[in-house]
Write a structure and sequence with these properties.
alpha/beta, nine-stranded mixed beta sheet, 17 helices, globular
């Protein structure tokens, strides 16, 4: 993304390109006077089960923080705020931080927002706040692109619009008449539009499209602002499903359960034992780490987005063993590529390190360059799954299934697709075994201080290292996996004489295109599976995508990318060529 050019002038954030200020001298008070009070947002938010605001012009996020703070002070704990916004020229994290420091925004929300402010990469970013009560969806895209994507995906609709870009004569693209004419298509009955602009072109466009426009006189910030209220029936709402069944108690199943539970859906989570995280997802060490690429092809782009979303889960009360991971250069990660990625993401997400900095951080002598990813983290699989199910809307039950549940709405988030039988016949999937090994060393200094990533990973845990994981297309002979992981450990630590303590074996389902399978497969059935070796990052993200689609809401991913995850993709490809994974099957 091209970042905004901005600077502070007399204590106010100013855009030289648009020759305009981002906000009044007191932007929090301005939000109340222009948007919250005229549209009666506080009372309306308190009455709703889910209240949706769509803003044009995110800027420094003052409207979001101010509205979110007011929502938390007055709304019931069962109410959810969806705040959707778009920004074509995002401000840097440093400028936003400075803008927040000189205003009276909610400090807790501000700190949480800034901690996981997205890198300047185009996309749809979702962040959750206040025990999931507030959902921010931020488009790094222009208003036209964002609105069209919303129209294509969302059937829940908008309760209140906030139009807060630069003035129409200085930013005409955001106030395009064709763009404004689309607002009524997705506005709920009695929905509102608030804006600082009282320009006749804006008023007339809203009036032509079913809004009654009223000027708000005499605010402290502008002589006139505008309030528009939809005076036609509006978007017909639909009753969302209130309960569902999920099959699978691993990363995918528990993450999907949590994504639906936070939306008020009662979830029955079925596992064979009545417990979660007791199969492959019970891995003792799971690393959330990016598999980043400078490419914008769908597979590479998808992997980056899984990391940006799931890294923010560190804000959950999750049992983490260690934060931060070091990506070393190697045969699969050239120094030039890793440096470019680090420069693009910025130091909050990635920090380039030379050899001396690397040695100081890890305590191990390396001749590699590297990048440190401070948002990466390590979890114990079983505890991770258990923590996701700690929600009053989730009930974990024991039940052995031998065939699909055809008569109830069910999401299958299992380790394999075998339960689905004929429905999965065309899917290009393969079950691959893998192994994690734990080693110890007599010299405590041999254990690195940080997680190391290269061809696999090494996770230090007090006096031991956990090393993984193998990728066995055909099951290896006993001992080969342990020897492979030992060699990896010796290479990454430059130490020998490690003692093997234990092994953990599991299996994962992979696809021919290395993308998971997410979507609806029949009127009552959905799937979220085949996450391969990237499940720590991809399962929470895909759970959010699936939950959004399940309830007819905007998902945090472009629709063209979502289509690439759909189960139907394989049968469409097999019209042109055979299943490439068939040769690995017995």
């Amino acid at each position: 993304m091209r970042p905004a050019v901005a600077r502070f002038v007399d204590g106010r954030l100013f855009s030289p390109n648009f020759n305009d200020y981002y906000a009044a001298r007191d932007p929090v008070a301005e939000t109340f006077h222009v948007h919250i009070q005229p549209a009666n947002l506080v009372e309306r938010m308190c009455r709703a089960r889910t209240f949706t605001i769509f803003e044009f012009g995110f800027g420094a996020g003052i409207n979001f923080l101010t509205t979110g703070s007011a929502f938390l002070k007055h709304a019931d704990s069962n109410t959810r705020l969806r705040f959707i916004s778009c920004e074509a020229l995002p401000l840097s994290s440093a400028l936003i931080s400075e803008a927040h420091a000189i205003t009276s925004v909610d400090r807790t929300l501000s700190e949480q927002f800034l901690d996981f402010y997205p890198p300047l990469v185009s996309g749809i970013y979702r962040r959750l706040f206040a025990s999931d009560q507030i959902e921010l969806t931020l488009f790094f895209a222009d208003a036209k692109t964002a609105l069209n994507e919303f129209l294509d995906q969302d059937s829940l609709g908008v309760d209140a619009w906030i139009l807060d870009g630069f003035a129409p004569d200085r930013n005409p693209e955001m106030w395009d008449l064709d763009l404004l004419s689309k607002l009524e298509k997705c506005t709920k009955p009695n929905g509102t539009v608030t804006t600082f602009s009282s320009a006749s072109s804006v008023r007339q466009s809203l009036e032509r499209n079913g809004f009654a426009v009223r000027r708000i006189e005499g605010t402290p910030f502008k002589r006139q602002t505008s309030l528009a209220t939809l005076n036609k029936p509006g978007l017909a709402g639909r009753e969302p499903p209130t309960k569902t069944t999920i099959v699978g108690g691993g990363f995918a199943g528990t993450a999907t359960a949590r994504a639906l539970a936070r939306r008020g859906v009662q979830v029955r989570l079925i596992t064979p034992t009545g417990t979660v995280g007791d199969a492959t997802s019970g891995i003792p060490t799971a690393v959330l780490h990016p598999r980043l690429s400078a490419s914008m092809d769908v597979p590479a782009y998808f992997r980056t987005q899984t990391y940006f979303f799931s890294a923010a889960m560190k804000g959950y009360p999750l049992p983490t063993a260690m934060s931060g991971a070091v990506q070393l250069t190697g045969k699969n990660m050239a120094a030039s590529r890793l440096r470019d990625i680090s420069d693009l993401l910025g130091e909050k997400w990635a920090q380039w390190m030379d050899t001396n900095e690397l040695n100081e951080l890890t305590g191990i002598k390396h001749d590699h360059d590297a990048a440190f990813f401070p948002k990466s983290f390590v979890v114990e699989g079983e505890k991770f799954c258990h923590s996701l199910t700690q929600h009053p809307n989730i009930d974990v039950v024991a039940q052995e299934l031998t065939e699909p549940l055809l008569d109830e709405r069910t999401i299958y988030a299992t380790g394999s697709a075998s339960l689905l039988g004929d429905q999965a016949d065309s899917w290009e999937v393969l079950t691959i075994e893998g192994q994690l090994d734990t080693f110890t060393h007599t010299n405590e200094l041999a254990v690195p201080r940080r997680v190391l990533i290269q061809d696999g990973y090494v996770v230090p845990n007090q006096s031991v290292c956990e090393v993984g994981s193998t990728y066995e297309y055909a099951k290896w002979e006993p001992g080969i996996a342990t020897a492979t992981n030992l060699e990896k450990l010796q290479t990454l630590t430059n130490e020998e004489n490690w003692t093997h303590l234990r092994s953990f074996r599991g299996h994962r389902t992979v696809t021919s295109d290395k993308l998971p399978i997410v979507g609806q497969i029949s009127p009552n059935s959905w799937v979220n599976l085949a996450h391969g070796s990237a499940g720590t990052a991809s399962t929470p993200y895909c759970a959010e995508i699936l939950a959004s689609q399940y309830l007819g809401e905007l998902a945090p991913l472009w629709l063209e990318c979502i289509d690439r995850l759909h189960p139907n993709r394989f049968s469409e490809r097999q019209v042109r060529r055979p299943n490439p994974l068939q040769r690995y099957r017995k």
